[in-house]
Design goal:
The complex is a heterodimer. Chain A has 21 helices and 26 strands. By secondary structure, chain A is an alpha+beta fold. Chain A folds into three domains: about 170 residues, Aldehyde Oxidoreductase, domain 3; about 160 residues, 2-Layer Sandwich (Aldehyde Oxidoreductase, domain 4), CATH 3.30.365; about 250 residues, Aldehyde Oxidoreductase, domain 4, CATH 3.30.365.10. In chain A, the strands form six sheets. A seven-stranded mixed sheet of chain A has the order 3-5-1-12-9-10-11, sandwiched between helices. A five-stranded mixed sheet of chain A has the order 7-15-14-13-8, sandwiched between helices. Chain B is of the alpha+beta class. A five-stranded antiparallel sheet of chain B has the order 4-5-8-6-7. In chain B, helix 5 runs antiparallel to helix 8 and helix 10 packs antiparallel against helix 11. The chains are: A alpha+beta, B alpha+beta. Chains A and B meet through helix 21 of A and helix 12 of B.
Chain lengths: ~750, ~325
Amino acid sequence: MAKKDHWENTQDPHLLYTEAARSEGLTTQDAPSTKEKPEFNIIGRDTLRIDGHKIVTGKAPFLNDIRLRGMLVGKTLRSPHPHAEIVSIDLSKAKSLPGVKAVIGLDREKAQYIGNRVAAVAAVDEQTAEKALKLIEVEYKPLPYVVSVEKSMEEGAPRVHDKKPNVEKIRDEKRGDVELGFKEADVVLERTYKTAIEIHHPAETHGSIAKWEGDRLIVWDSTQAIHNVRDGLARSLGIPAGRVTVIKRYMGAGFGSKLGLNAHTVIAAMLAKQTGRPVKITLTRKENSLCVGNRPTSLQTYKGGVKKDGTLTALSLTNYTTGGVNRGDRCSEPLLDVYRCPNLHVKEYTVYTNMGGSRATRAPGHVQGTFGLEGFLDELANEIGLDPLELREMNYTTKNRGDTGVPYSSKGLDKCYELGAEKIGWHRRNKTPGAGQGSTRRGLGMSSQIWWGAGVPGTLADVKLYPDGSVDVICGTQDIGCGTRTHMAVVAADTLGLQPKDITIKLGNSDYPWAPISGGSLTTPSVAPAVRDASLKAADHLKEMAAKKLKVSGEDISLQDKKLVDKNNPENAISFKELARDLRRETVFHGERKGMPDGFAYNTFGAHFVEVEVETETGQIKVLKVVAAHDSGQIINTKTAESQVIGGVTQGVSTALFEQRTVDDTTGTLVNPNWRDYKIATSMDIPEIIPIFVDVDDPHINILGTKGLGEPPRIPIAAAIGNAVYNAIGVHIRETPMTPDKVLQALRQKEAI
Amino acid sequence: MKEFKLAQPQNLAQVTSLPSDQRYFLMAGGTDLLDEIKNEIIDPGVVVDLKSIPDLAYIRSTDEKIRIGAMTRVSELAENSTIKTNYPVLHEAALSLATPQLQNVGTVGGNLCQRPRCWYYRDPQVECRKKGGSRCYAARGRNRYHAILGGGICHIVYPSDLAPALISLDAEATIATANGDRTVPLEEFYTLPRVDVRKENILKANEILKEVKIPPSKNEGKSTYVKLKERGTWDFALVSAAVCGIVSGNTFKDIKIVLGGVAPIPWRLEKAENLLKGNPVTDDVVKQAAKEALSDARPLKENAYKQDLAAIAVSRAVLSLV
């Protein structure tokens, strides 16, 4: 039987994620060299996805395309009660249904939210499995529950967890003296911002297939973390990690909801063991809405002091966040880091409720915190009649922790401001918010972005050369849809003088060399330097071989156009393929993403500039244009980098305007567990998006000077939209999603003043 | 999903003569019914697939009327040139509906007979009044998309875009019954929850909506459909206004205003019609008329904004015609 506590732990991958994302302070003797930046031929240019054609023509196998001989379908019975004691479970009727191969109770004493797993079945097909679920007889004893944050905070509210109170402090951090700072200020302002719960909703819902071969377990999983799933499965099932292989082929996104081991994966393995047949479990959209994570709410109250010239003197934040049965998100990280402010006080509390637990969601905490902080800065700027961009420039830093810490290894935020402002035409903004006339008003807004994204030292990759001239790049990372295959091929091809299509990419298998989770914007800055390292070693080896053939020194050889060429005499050359023959056998070169020197903070930066149009009669917001300027260091492939930015902005527009998990406080039911009522932006809602990558050299971070980009474009967009709406109509919508009802209400309140 | 039997009748008589003790559901395009079956909102028993019946999909112009067969696809309606020219309100409503994919599959009859989208009704675990329970969960629950008019015991809104448009055009519904066809004004086809909370229209067992008929368009006749929704496409109306009138200068000789998204049935705004008829129309006059006509609205906790939106939808539609 599985050890339950292990998979309970994996329900909350916040820690894993955050630790991995903020890899600052990891040290090693092998600091990257700071010698001159190399010349690139393919890196930093447009390369089409090497698997793009396969994906858009439906030939790429996603989890649901995998069908194994004798495979059964697994389904999970879930609690219909927000809080209930499970008195008894009777599986006998379900077991006797023809076509049912296994039924298991999940050894749970209590259900803590609607959707909490209770039992599972494996059957010959989906219909039979569904029928069997209905035949499982569970006696529940309903318990008092609480699903609203406000009610959970009340005295005497039903306890969500037996062993901890409903409200817990999760951060209390100070710098300087805020009271003193408020006294020094010319203006002191207090405002509250609120963000709704967002559900990840990857296009492909969660799914796993488990198959045993003797005492070896093979799992195909839709996951962002093959190695973590492998380790988690080994722990849960009490078998050696080396006997578990996790494979991830093509994937329809995760956004954080597929980090770490999932309960349904363990259940599939248990059912497969019991039946001796492969078992597939695919979650429905409803299950996806209820029980595999969400972005916690925030209720952020800022108090800030500013001098007339724009100098910030003090900022305080109190935040209440709920992640259902899991911890909420700390959202004060941008506030604590990016602007100069000598006096700060942050207090954050998590509030537990009887709802499905949170999981890391694309830039957890930063998305919510940036909406609050950057909205508040615009309101402060307005109070002192200052251009909001100038306010940010006034308080610019080059060291972390508000200029009190260590220098950033590189920071191109100033360039993002400059290029972004120019591209959007920042001078066109209303000098006074809401200065426009008529019922259709336009406005401009912006927001800064900070995130981690340095990558993880110790990431491994191999380059394998074959005597026939073919080349493999092998790494136990996973391409979750962002173009990892392509960037690996780009780096190897550039280093070896080949083209990306000449490289065979092998990834998505936990038997391959270790790589971290794909989350936290760390895949590229982990994997690309490791591939580069291995490729450089392969290149050196080939150069030495060529040098002997061409009778020159290895230093005089360059790899270009599928040849090894004497730099001093380009006629003196040998083709890559011909030279490879002399390898005689396949040869493997091991690469590693090395550590980073101490004494720096490693961060990514960006700034979004947005133009909106607001209909004051209907409260409708139309985003017209987004300029997204990013400092993510050396871009490996501009094509997929731009896609990443377009995706992040799209998701941000969607959550700024539409997305909200809606819960009935009385019954504890999620009323919109589908894509009709949980509204996600359509193509009609997405504006022109202009990505800009600023040219910033980072000699410290890794041998390619590359930083992550997965989360950055998701972070500032909602704040920038909010600020543009403020600029258009002169009233700040302090709550996402900014739906027509909220805009109309805010306008009415403004009229009333 | 519950198991069901599939019936493929060859003619309407086979449908109208089905034994009345049998539980069955009629399926046109299936975009709504299949959803209800899959989510176990209903236990269908027998699904009667109307696609097997020939000659129910047509748009025919006669001297007197335009006749639209119930199985006509919404996309065919949207593309029809006579409708586009003579009945803009219907053309615009068809185009605004769902998405091109759903327009290609959904039918006119199905759209007019679809079930409400209330998220409590659509939750298989919720036994609300519409499903035979004793409560309307929306009344004190989450109700930003619910009715501001005519709710009472059940606060659904009728989700169809075509219904308000057709009613504004004085369309009639032809209903096939075991005793031959009967025809009613489409406006009378829909019923409030207080009539029968489990139903949204007058269809009895063994009856089927067969056709809608629109009277010929008049020369000075003008019409339009204004739909306010949250996102750019694939969205039911927060509020919509279908307006059809006979305009001379800036005065309406005749006008019909029907709202969608505000009530359990397409909601006729007679008060506004009377205030506007015969008077020169200005921005202020329309807004005032709409406001007055909507003063009966009884919003719930989260949907008062719909009252503002309804007034705007009406004034935008009316003003676009003068």
